[in-house]
Write a structure and sequence with these properties.
Its cofactor is a divalent metal cation. This protein has 505 residues and is α+β, with helices and mostly antiparallel strands. The chain contains 9 helices and 13 strands.
């Protein structure tokens, strides 16, 4: 049975019980009032005209009203009565001198009428005065009939009004039910209409809409992750299949005797093997970045940046890589030094590989609202907005033709993003075609040390090679490579580290 039907039935039943209770109470009160009135009349009769001894004489001027029955029982056993009715009251069990009682008619009367009667004794004569209750009972039955008619009409009105009101009150629930059915059918964009928040339905609708929004977001996120994983597996398979296909091709080429250039075949095999090795290493690095616990300690970002710049200059000989500390103090963050080193190095490597041969790199350090900003700025070719919006996705490359002669595995920036998020930070990129790109890593700053060792304010040794040492305080140190002039430190852009050293992926 529907809820609205249950509510209407419950409303009618409760209302009916209330009306019945009220009717019974009214009838009982009315009966008591009428019987008390009859009792008063009987008492008045006993104390008045019924006391005379010649009440049955012809000379009686105060003849009793016809609705009364008078019975006198004399000491000699004689019984005289005056009764205007066909029935007679049963007076055998009356208590002399007691209050009026309700008695039935005698069996000889063949009547169901009730009487109110009382008996008194005076000078040995028992006087019984009784009154038939037919008129009072007719009045009470009429009252009950009127109450019944009123109850039926009222209950019908209550049922109709209750059905309309409950149907109207439950209309929002039907809308919620319909919306839920449409959502279950797959339409996750559906929402429950808003109702006033001070109502229960309004609060329910608001809670449902919030739940539906979170559900839709979760479903879309799950679908996105599933699609991303599917694409990741497909791209990884393709990336691994490409060098394997090349390896097999060159091997079969040599076996078939099509070429005798062993050096060329070996060099191609070595190149494809290296490419596949780099890809596998990047995949492992990405997996480790997402699952490895960090060794969190205070890290001097300036010192770290100088170290990364030195490593990058060793790997990319002759390229301009600068460090500029634009903070008023020592930029310190809590993090894993090796992972932070990997973040900055990957960003530098990305800028040098894709920015062009003339691109210059600057590592800028800033502070903003309790955060340390590490900016890796290149003066390379830049990117259009469509590319920059996807640059941190796995296996994403600007060259959709999948040529890999100059490109990497497409995992470097994905690794960077994962590591930055593990440190509780964020990364963003701003780029303009023909101008360059700026990658900004935002990390929560740690408390600055109260003092630094005096030795740190002395001459700091810069990376070896053709670097020129310069005096600079720790907070103002700067390392520049290439032919840069000014108060900051300069470097010729070469390092003693061998060119075969590769930066950490």
């Amino acid at each position: 049975m529907p809820l609205r039907t249950w509510l209407v039935v419950l409303l009618v039943v409760v209302s009916g019980l209330g009306i019945i209770s009220a009717s019974v109470a009214v009838s009982a009160v009315m009966r008591d009032v009428l019987y008390n009135q009859v009792d008063d009349e009987l008492i008045a009769a006993q104390n008045g005209w019924a006391r005379t001894t010649n009440v049955f004489g012809l000379d009686l001027t105060g003849r009793p009203p016809t609705e009364y029955s008078l019975i006198k029982i004399y000491p000699d056993g004689a019984v005289r009565y005056l009764n205007p009715y066909e029935s007679m009251p049963q007076v055998d069990e009356l208590v002399i001198g007691a209050a009026p009682e309700t008695v039935d008619s005698t069996s000889e009367s063949n009547s169901t009428s009730e009487w109110r009667a009382m008996a008194t004794e005076r000078d040995g004569v028992i006087t019984v005065v009784a009154k038939n209750l037919d008129s009072e009972q007719i009045l009470l039955r009429g009252l009950a009939l009127v109450q019944l008619m009123i109850a039926v009409v009222v209950l019908m009105l209550i049922a109709i009004a209750g059905f309309w009101f409950i149907r109207r009150a439950l209309r929002p629930l039907r809308v919620v039910e319909k919306t839920a059915s449409e959502i279950a059918a797959g339409d996750l964009d559906k929402r429950v209409p808003e109702w006033p928040q001070h109502t229960e339905v309004g609060q329910l609708a608001s809670a449902l809409n919030i739940m539906l929004a979170k559900l839709q977001a979760s479903v879309e996120q799950a679908q996105g992750k599933e699609e991303q994983m599917r694409r990741f597996v497909g791209d990884a398979s393709h990336e691994l299949r490409t060098p394997l296909t090349s390896l097999r091709g060159y091997t079969e080429l040599y076996r078939a005797g099509i070429t005798d250039d062993v050096d060329m075949v070996l060099s191609k095999i070595d190149a494809e093997s290296s490419r596949m090795s780099y890809l596998v290493e990047d995949l492992l690095a990405l997996t480790r970045a997402e699952g490895t616990r960090l060794d969190i300690r205070p890290v001097d970002v300036l010192e770290l940046s100088l170290s990364v710049a030195s490593s990058a200059r060793a790997a990319f000989t002759g390229r301009s890589i600068n460090v500029a500390n634009n903070t008023s103090g020592v930029p310190v963050v809590y993090g894993d030094a090796s992972r932070l080193h990997q973040i900055i190095l990957n960003l530098i490597t990305n800028g040098l590989r894709h920015g062009g041969e003339e691109a210059e790199i600057t590592i800028g350090l800033e502070k903003d609202n309790g955060d340390v900003l590490i900016k890796v700025i290149d003066t390379g070719r830049g990117m259009d907005p469509e590319v920059s919006s996807h640059i941190f996705e796995r296996f994403y490359r600007e060259d959709t033709s999948r040529t890999r002669d100059t490109g990497g595995s497409g995992l470097g920036l994905a690794i960077v993003k994962s590591l930055v998020e593990q440190h509780g930070g964020s990364i963003s990129v701003e780029s303009e075609l023909g101008v360059g790109s700026t990658f900004t890593v935002r990390l929560p700053a740690a408390e600055e040390p109260e003092s630094m060792d005096s030795s740190e304010s002395e001459d700091d040794a810069l990376p070896q090679g053709n670097a020129v040492p310069v005096k600079a305080s720790r907070k103002n140190r700067s390392l520049r490579s290439g032919k840069k002039n000014g108060a900051k430190a300069e470097s010729a852009g070469e390092a003693s580290t061998s060119e075969s050293e590769k930066p950490e992926a």
